[in-house]
Design a protein that fits this description.
By secondary structure, the chain is an all-alpha fold. Helices cover 77% and strands 0% of the residues. The chain has two domains: 30 residues; 148 residues, no CATH class.
């Protein structure tokens, strides 16, 4: 009878320990989970593949670089000692993508005014596309740089709010840069 009681007590203690571990995991908000921005970072690969497919090789490679740095950073796949280096590399990658995207956009816009090039002509679709690209670009600047200055949007004190706006920033970037490729 004592063996049976000991087994029951042992199982109850083990169940309590398992419940405590599960509750600790639920309440633990450490760096063991991925940021929600991790998933939108994976979507950067769509832009990289589309750029490479359309023979914009440097643009595609820059997007691949941004994809990898962003996935690593937002997926928290780094040691604390390398966090600042990875963040700097991720920011540099983002700025390079923006600069090259602006270069491509200006190059494509200048082709519209070239009378000898019959492939590009101004029409309502191209004007709307360019406006959407410019609006997405200005919105990302607003969310990131102005948000940094006032500690809102991507830099909000509430992590969920900051991640929400950062995901919007990722999605706007994807839309704007895909439209540059398709223009």
């Amino acid at each position: 009878m004592t063996n049976l009681n000991n087994n029951i007590i042992g199982k109850n203690n083990r169940n309590k320990e398992i419940n405590e571990i599960e509750n600790t995991k639920k309440n633990d908000k450490t760096n063991t989970t991925c940021s929600p921005c991790f998933y939108t970072s994976i979507l950067f690969l769509i832009v990289a593949i589309k750029a490479l497919y359309n023979n914009y090789i440097p643009y595609g490679l820059l997007w691949l670089q941004l994809s990898f740095t962003s996935i690593l950073y937002h997926g928290r796949m780094y040691s604390e000692a390398n966090k600042d280096y990875l963040l700097s590399y991720d920011k540099a990658s983002a700025y390079l993508v923006v600069l090259y995207g602006a270069y491509l956009l200006l190059q494509k816009i200048s082709c519209f005014s070239d009378n000898t090039n019959k492939k590009y002509k101004w029409n309502s679709c191209s004007i709307i596309t360019i406006l959407i690209i410019i609006i997405s670009f200005l919105t990302t600047i607003y969310l990131y740089h102005y948000g940094y200055q006032i500690s809102k949007y991507c830099f909000d004190d509430n992590t969920e709010t900051a991640n929400y706006y950062h995901m919007i920033l990722h999605l706007l970037s994807i839309i704007g840069h895909l439209l540059i490729i398709l223009l």
